[in-house]
Amino acid sequence: MIINDKCILLIDDEETIQEVVQVGIEIEVGWQVLIASSGLEGIAVAQTQQPDAILLDVMMPELDGISTLSELKANPKTQSIPVIFLTAKVQAAEKNQLPGLGVAGVITKPFNSMNLASRIASILQWKI
């Protein structure tokens, strides 16, 4: 296992996804994974913990991913944290629109949890 000091915040309302992402990233590269189950919780965690990057589900109840992203980008404490959308429901046209919203990238579900950290590192140009 590669020990690395990165911290990733996952904002996703599905417990299964939370577990798969956390275990996959921790096994693959040893990054810390913070979990938030809603957009509002994710915004609060991002402000206090200042993660290196955020994985953000698009489809969530209450505050969806796009609204959550808007809040993150509007806040001076969180606006510079790179955000990667994690989404199951993405049409080709939507996928082309998402980068225009200020996201670093898009990873579609289902994904291989054992190479998720590599995909994140590739999008953000991190060395692992």
Name its key features.
alpha/beta, 5-stranded parallel sheet, 5 strands, Rossmann fold, 19% strand, 5 helices, 128 residues
Structure characterization notes:
By secondary structure, this protein is α/β, with parallel strands linked by helices. It has a single domain (7-124), classed as 3-Layer(aba) Sandwich (Rossmann fold). It has five helices and five strands; from the N terminus they run E-H-E-H-E-H-E-H-E-H. Strands 2-1-3-4-5 form a five-stranded parallel sheet, with helices on both faces. The radius of gyration is 13 Å and the shape is globular.
Short characterization:
With 128 residues, the chain is of the alpha/beta class. The chain is built from five helices and five strands.
Order of SSEs: EHEHEHEHEH
Task: Provide the helix percentage.
Answer: 25-40%
The appropriate CATH architecture is: 3-Layer(aba) Sandwich
Distance between the termini: 11 Å
Protein name: Response regulator receiver protein
Domain Response regulatory: 7-124
GO biological process, one term: phosphorelay signal transduction system
Modified residues (4-aspartylphosphate): 57
Blueprint of the fold:
Elements (H helix, E strand, L loop, with lengths): L6 E5 L3 H14 L3 E5 L2 H11 L3 E5 L7 H10 L8 E5 L4 H6 L7 E4 L7 H9 L4
Parallel strand pairs: 1-2, 1-3, 3-4, 4-5
